[in-house]
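User: Please run a holo structure prediction.
Assistant: Happy to. Please share the sequence and the ligand.
User: Here you go; the ligand is iron/sulfur cluster.
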Amino acid sequence: MSAGATTGVAEGQGLVKLTAKDFKGKVDPDWCPGCGDFGVLRSLQAVCAEMGLRPHEVITISGIGCSSNFPGFFNAYGMHTLHGRALAVATGVQMANHELTVVCTGGDGDGYGIGGNHFVHIARRNVNLTYLVMNNQIYGLTTGQVSPTSCDGMKTKSTPYGSVEMPVNPITSAIMNGATFVARAFSGDPKHMQSLIRQGIEHKGFALVDIFSPCVTFNHDNDYGFFKERVKRLEDEGHDPSDWKAACEKGLLWGDTIYTGLFFRKLAPSLDQLEPVLESGGPMAHRPLGITKEQSDRILKRMM
Ligand code: SF4
């Protein structure tokens, strides 16, 4: 984990306004030219600068996949964890230091397939973090197999005759499982995406931002043109995000109209707010361990 390595801004000054560039990692993304993930990376960098956050106040946590390489390209604390396990690790991080801004980043296969169980439980627990899912409806890193969000009938390397499975609907799944902030963005509409990411980070509790982030190399069905023709913003239709039923109905739509925007939001205490151990005394990570250095070294050695 590392943070603050490339900002060039003295820690503690607090007066220098950071820009999106200050959140640029040392390593350039290795994504294919045109991949939707570039837009998501730029948006989170812009949002962190806009919100006055500093790299040491933010952590990005991912699983495995093209989009899960995200923490390596972002200047903040970062953890590149196991396939589908980002949300489990992030829950631990958030509870250990509830003052950090925790952002999970990954793809549809990692989050809704391999990590589907964690997706259910993080929603019902209302863990205070933002989950950016770069949903390209395919497994890109492994060169184009059917994913949990691939459309019914989609031909891929693993489904040469067309997928016979019903896709997962991340919007209604999140709402049904108790998520308190559920939004969808499109990488081809960066300003709108930025606004939704910012609202997600500002929300106290679990915030899902499912993002159509086209895989230009392996998914030729759901490309930028497909979404540009269909995507409509909920805000332009006067949608009320406190209306649970309308949120579910609009989340189910998939056809000539596909909605982006904030589907559902409700206020409810987050897990760290409910945990009695965190009521006073600050983040666990800053509290004294209550054991000697020799004891902690011995424990760490045994665990490594
Ligand atoms: Fe992006 Fe697809 Fe290339 Fe992966 S394979 S980097 S998802 S365009």
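Strands lie at 58-62, 77-80, 101-107, 130-135, 181-186, 207-212, 231-233, 258-265.
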